[in-house]
Amino acid sequence: MLVYILKRLALIVPTLFGILLLNFVIVQAAPGGPVEKALAQLQGLGGGGTGGGFAGTTADFTGGGDGGYRGSRGLPPELVARIEKLYGFDKPAPERFWLMVKRYLTFDFGESYYRDRPVSTLIAERLPVSISLGLWSTLITYLVAIPLGIRKAVRDGSRFDVWTSTAIVVGYAIPSFLIAILLVVLFAGGSYLEWFPLRGLTSDDFDQLSTFGKVLDYFHHITLPTLAIVIGNFATLTMLTKNSFLDEIGKQYVQTARAKGLTEKGVLYGHVFRNAMLIIIAGFPAAFVGMFFTGVLLIEYIFSLDGLGLLGFESVINRDYPVVFGTLFIFTLLGMLLKLVSDLTYMWVDPRIDFERRAR
């Protein structure tokens, strides 16, 4: 077991390197960038002020060097070179990538181009929001979907199965962001009730509250966004659980267990559960990472929650490459660690599975 864990941890390094390299190459080929954006801002000033911290205006310079950038016409090559140096684009692409990799080995993600703050600080500030949304959403989704899926499998074809399937289809058909808007309209002062706050993860006077008051205030703010995510995501897991249990219930070993005199509950939780849950466990890392980051982007926007999903999206739009690669590094690292946890859970649920022996 220890050897297998060490091998998997060792594989994280080349995998991270490959993902960073691939995305770095794609970014280099994509049009636009921080230099082009700074040049466009300077051109748009028209001689009326300063741009991006550079002394002088476009009217103060003469010359027509294009510097190889779109939008640099009319700007002197010296100014273009200063902008390139500011953003680190004065070095060749391979050298920039190598410097980035060396910094990432020590979790130094550099500074944001436009926020003038370290990327690690930005990530640390946004991480509690993403952890809150991802953790509670995943926990509640699994606590609801797995028992419901088992119940539907046991009572397959009954009225309970039919009406719950109808509710699940309706919840699956409505996107999470529409559910979020509906919850805002109904319960956050949109048009009807004003039971829940609309913005932020805590109130403005959070620091002055007692410990119990802080807990209540936190859950008061997190309820609606979590509910919106859960309603939009539990349908797939519920049906996956039901179908997995139905598939196992129809197998020969279940008939044998019943013939030996075991109760239905003993057959279900003593034999079927262990085998049926393998496919559920397999999808846990992807589901968790999806809820943790990318899957809650619009939810964060609607409820004014500054999480990593919104940070990464804004950084892509603004070509803030240090933040883009920093969040990508965190997403990938957490995803691979969770995949390892998933494999270890496999072996815990079913001791017959031995990844270490298969890897030899």
What key phrases describe this protein's structure?
single chain, 360 residues, mainly alpha, MetI-like fold, 2 domains, 15 helices, 69% helix
Give the low-confidence spans: 45-67
Structural class: mainly alpha
Bulk shape: globular
Summed up, the helix count is 15
Beta-strand residue fraction:
under 5%
Q: Could you say what the CATH topology of the largest domain is called? A: MetI-like fold
Radius of gyration: 26 Å
β-strand number: 0
The CATH C-level name of the largest domain is Mainly Alpha
Q: Any idea what the CATH architecture of the largest domain is?
A: Orthogonal Bundle
- What average pLDDT do the residues reach? 77
Structural commentary:
With 360 residues, the protein is mainly α. It folds into 2 domains: 34-104, no CATH class; 121-358, MetI-like fold. Helix content is 69%, strand content 0%. It has helices at residues 2-29, 34-45, 77-86, 93-104, 119-154, 159-173, 176-187, 211-249, 252-259, 264-282, 284-292, 297-302, 308-317, 321-349, 355-358. Helix 5 packs parallel to helix 14 and helix 7 (176-187) crosses helix 8 (211-249). The chain is globular.
